[in-house]
Structure formats: C-alpha cells, structure tokens
Amino acid sequence: MSDTNSAGTILIREDTRLPANLSIESEAFLPGWRVVKSLDRSTLARNIEGVNWNFFYLAGEIRATVLGRNQPRTLRRAVKCVLAKQEGQKFNSLEITKVVSKRFLGIPFMSVTAHSRHIKQGVGLVPAKDFVLRMPVAATQESGLGSGGERLHAEVATRQYMALISSS
Fold this sequence. Notes:
The protein has three helices and six strands. By secondary structure, it is an alpha+beta fold. It folds into two domains: about 1-120, no CATH class; about 130-165. A hairpin with a 2-residue loop joins strand 2 and strand 3. It is elongated, with a radius of gyration of 23 Å.
C-alpha cells in the first residue's frame, strides 16, 4: 500500500466489466473500489486498447484536501472526498495524478488531485441510445393544403439522423 500515494495510481470500481482476456492484479482500497497493483497507467491503457476496448480520460481535475500526516489512511480519506465530489457521474475508474503532503502552521495536510477515467468496449463514451438528437420542427398548419407534410418531413429526417447515430 505504500506505493499507492504516487502519481499514476489507478482505482477501478469493483463492478466494472473488463475484457475476458485481460488480467489485472488489484487489492481493496475503499468499499467498492480496488487499486491496480502491477500496472502503471500507460501499460494498463495499452493492454486495454490491445483488446480493442477504450480507456477514456475525462477532462477536468478533481481536488481534495484533508488534514493528516502522509499515511495510507489519510490518502484513503482524500480519495473518498474526491469520489464524493463525483457522485452521480458514470465513470468506472479514477487516476490519482498528484499527491502533496505539506504543513501549514505545523498542521499536516494532504492534497490529492485526480482525473476520472472510464473503461468501455465501444468507441463512444455515451451510448447511442442515450444520445438524443433534436431537430427544430417547422411549424405546421393544421388546416389547408400543407397539412401534415412538414411534420412528416421532420419525422423522416429525425429517423435518418437517429439511424446514423446508432450505427456509428
């Protein structure tokens, strides 16, 4: 556990679906999360991409600062704070990018910076079924010669775009 407070540490959610032919050695870190032991970030990314899966990097760093000395339990508390800030986000891994232990007026504290990561088989981060394409629909006249023609055209165009998205 002493090597976990270095940059590049990867945590993976316990229920994450992984490729069948990819073996990752890990150990429990927090409830529901495991720390990858034997691989660094770049090797893990190469292994995941080698089996035609993707290891997405989600932009935006997450920071947390907690009081305490440079110890594993302090790191756990800081990572727990980072994960709490990302509550509700759909990601299945986390990369610790920076850990700094300092003192201010004699009080020790630890700052952790992390980035969300996501392991997935497809090339899109958002599934096609969750992606909604909205097209402006022309105002239709309820009566008269053009009744329903514009509406039918808008529905056909929307179906065409949805078919394009779901097939990519």
